[in-house]
Amino acid sequence: MTALTGKTRINLLIGSPISQVLAPGWLTDRMQKAGYDGLLVPIQILPDRLDTTLPELMAMPNVDSILVTLPHKFGASRHCSELSPRAAILGAVNAMRRQSDNTWYGDNFDGAGMLQGLLNAGQDVVGKTVYVAGAGGAGSSIAVSMLEAGATRLALHDPDVDKQNALLALLEKHYPGRASKGSGEVAGFDVVINASYAGFKESDPLPVDPSGLSALTVVADVITDPVPTKLLMEASIRGCVTRDGTHMLEGQMQLLFDFMTTR
Amino acid sequence: MTALTGKTRINLLIGSPISQVLAPGWLTDRMQKAGYDGLLVPIQILPDRLDTTLPELMAMPNVDSILVTLPHKFGASRHCSELSPRAAILGAVNAMRRQSDNTWYGDNFDGAGMLQGLLNAGQDVVGKTVYVAGAGGAGSSIAVSMLEAGATRLALHDPDVDKQNALLALLEKHYPGRASKGSGEVAGFDVVINASYAGFKESDPLPVDPSGLSALTVVADVITDPVPTKLLMEASIRGCVTRDGTHMLEGQMQLLFDFMTTR
User: Fold this and answer.
1) I want to staple A87 with a disulfide (CB 3.0 to 4.6 A). Which of A108, A159, A191, B55 is the partner?
2) Dist CA B111 CA A233 (whole Å)
3) d(Cα B146, Cα A116) in Å, to the nearest integer?
4) Is the dihedral of CA A170, A175, A177, A182 positive or negative?
5) Which residues, 6 or more positions from A156, have their beta carbon under 8 angstroms from its beta carbon?
């Protein structure tokens, strides 16, 4: 990397644990290649210290942005003066940046990264129907991003019925009449997304029944290991365009880089 | 540098302002070359936030050490559970590290860096007499380090008489009978050190009268720009061994590196 100096702009990635994160290397490399004198530094903040630590980080004049991973996405959103519409809906941020008036703006790029990954393959969701398996953090953010981007109708399924219903209620409030309960049957949907852990282990059942996929269905998965998942292999056999977890990550890195370095 | 990951050990350098610091580049390079997966990150902490920010930094599990520059050297010392003898005498630290029991140990390497720079040139101060011009932060730390290292007698001069007397009183308390007021006359001293700003500007008067220097006198200066200073040029003409501010800095970097990376 280019020389680290006292003028290097500092960006932080906070979470706990922190040893598993990959973004510091990726985004620092991207900054360096773009000639931007910046660094993304991984910092572990224990869960019970977020509310005392985060205001101190926000008060450091040479810190431009703070990326947020588990378990701090919800807590960090409460420290922002302003939130993007999707971050406000989700009540969770994974990125915040200092604004010119020294207040902090929060956004959530988890779902937007999935959308960007689709766009990078020439697949828009405007006017499309989308099926999402999984109503956790990733599924919530993806569902909001798809509806925000113009998907006409979204079906959602999660074996945890309470989680599924809570997300459906949230989507109904903000995008009335466009989200409904999914059945596992994906025939007729333009885009099918796995946002659940199913596919992580060899023994996992498929998150949706692949028999409903046609060659016109776009199929995406959040899982980055293994790549491709069994679902994506079934989709490829049927001639579908597929996007794996690394495409979502790449899309998200692209958006985070722009968010961090654009003033 | 090698890839930055979530496992990279984080070290911080705190101060305000921060844009002038050079240690992050130097020490990060040194870590990388030694195969130590670490980073020294410059962080600006505004003066009135030290007491709220520093405890949060100390609670970050992936932060191993914190280097300290102006104006936080005195304030940071109060957050350490344990201080080196010289840091305790000075009431100021420029480096603190996490100990195995998660408490923090503080030390002060400003004067030790000067000593290390002399040692690197084969010049010990054991049994020697030392003249120090300047009783500010650098002069204080250098005076303590010289007496700690075994200088038998030390003379100190500062045009600010209150500052001079305060440091002499401190030295008298900890090293009774070994420190006295200097007159500007350096004849008979083994080691002569400029720890004042004199020599920074072309128009500055010499900090000591060079006519008392002999070929056996070792002359050192804290000033890093210009190098050599007028004092060191006068000393060279007289055949003295000289050490400039960059040798002190190099000595200090060497000590800080060991302090930060040794567990």
Assistant:
1) A108
2) 65
3) 62
4) negative
5) A131, A132, A135, A139, A143, A164, A167, A168, A171, A179, A180, A181, A182
Interface ipTM: 0.89
- Residues of chain A positioned with their CB less than 8 A from the CB of B30: none
Which pair of structure tokens corresponds to residue A207?
A: 């998150």
Tokens of A218: 């776009």
Q: For position A2, what pLDDT does the model report?
A: 54
Neighbours of B209 (CB within 10 A): 14
Q: What pLDDT, on the 0 to 100 scale, is given for residue A3?
A: 81
Copy the structure tokens of residue A163. Answer: 């989680």
Which domains are present in chain A?
9-108 (3.40.50.10860), 111-248 (3.40.50.720)
Instruction: Give residue A200's pLDDT.
Output: 84
Q: Is the pLDDT of residue B2 over 70?
A: no
| Strands A179-181 and A218-221, sheet pairing | unpaired
Structure tokens at B186: 């350096």
A246 neighbors A239 (Cβ within 8 angstroms): no
Active site includes B73?
A: yes
Residue-level pLDDT at B199: 85
Mapped onto helix, strand or coil, the DSSP state of residue B13 is: strand
| Paired tokens of B188 | 């008979």
**Active-site position among B33, B73, B163, B173:** B73
Q: Which residue has the tokens 């101190």?
A: A56
Residue at A225: amino acid letter: D
Q: What is the pLDDT of residue B228?
A: 95
| Predicted TM-score (pTM) of this structure | 0.92
CB B223 within 8 A of CB B200: yes
Report the residue from B10, B18, B25 with minimal CB separation from A41: B10
Q: What is the average pLDDT across A14-23?
A: 94
SS3 string of A40-102? Answer: EEEEECCHHHHHHHHHHHHCCCCEEEEEECCCCHHHHHCCCCEECHHHHHHCCCCEEEECCCC
Among A62, A64, A66, A79, most B C-beta atoms within 10 A, so best to mutate, is A62
A interface mutation test: which of B2, B5, B40, B63 has the most A CBs within 10 A? B5
pLDDT score, position A169: 98
pLDDT band for position A114 (50/70/90)? very high
